[in-house]
Amino acid sequence: MSTVNENGSWDIPEPDHAELVQMRIRLITLENIVLGLLSGASDEQIEQIRKRADMIEPRPEASRHPLTELAAGDMRKFLERAARMAKTESREDRD
């Protein structure tokens, strides 16, 4: 159970194995939902996401954050995967 300390900080227990498995399942589920939505997105929506990924970089006075930079790369990969899905769906619709 999470508790609040006197200074306002939180003591949050580490997730156990079952919770980690559930989080992974939910993450995979969300990734597939997002891919499905992106595969039907308009060119304008795709371009907005691409621009957002390009904007992810540290502020001039801030230090680099590798995980954030990896996330930007993942955004681009999602767009590529969604484009492949859209092509596959388009081919299936014609058949």
From TrEMBL:
This is Uncharacterized protein. The lineage of its organism: Bacteria, Pseudomonadati, Pseudomonadota, Alphaproteobacteria, Sphingomonadales.
